[in-house]
Amino acid sequence: MAELIGRLQQDLNAARKAQDKPGVLLLGTIISDARNREIELRRDLTDDDVIEVIRRGIKKRRESAEMYEKGGRPELAATEKQESEVLGRYLPASVDPEEIRAAIREVIAGGNSAMGQVMGAIMGRFKGRVDGATINALVREELSKRG
After folding, report:
1. Is the pTM of this model over 0.85?
2. What is the 3-state secondary structure (H, E, C) of the chain?
3. Model confidence over 126-146: pLDDT tens digits?
């Protein structure tokens, strides 16, 4: 079993003892999402799988916060933002953008100049450590310098 899921479970138990209802709901939801992913994959989850589930949870909450702000509901947007920050604590330290840029330049120098080819190579290298939107922006930036 993934070490990260154990940490989430411990934090869920601590939140229950502290009667932290928002924490219980948030962690319970993420653990449930992870269990569903495990059923989907038909194998035990790795920490990378759990990180992927957490990243999806963060993305979903950021999108919700954006929608709430547009809809004039700042209190709901603040809740969503806070939840995404809490989930962010479970992610590994982020990678320096310069390290990603160097890898992108290396892939482009290797003859790949199509967006899809570069994205595929870079996503594989940084899977679970950097979100796709960040990589996408950096790849576009580097490719535009070439064009």
Report:
1. no
2. CCHHHHHHHHHHHHHHHCCCHHHHHHHHHHHHHHHHHHHHHCCCCCHHHHHHHHHHHHHHHHHHHHHHHHCCCHHHHHHHHHHHHHHHCCCCCCCCHHHHHHHHHHHHHCCCCCHHHHHHHHHHHHCCCCCHHHHHHHHHHHHHHHC
3. 876 787 888 888 888 888 887
Structure tokens at 139: 């790849």
Hey, what domains does the chain have and what are their CATH numbers?
3-88 (1.10.1510.10), 97-146 (1.10.10)
Query: In degrees to the nearest 10, what's the CA dihedral of 89, 21, 10, 30?
Result: -60
CB hemisphere CA count around 87 (13 angstroms): 27
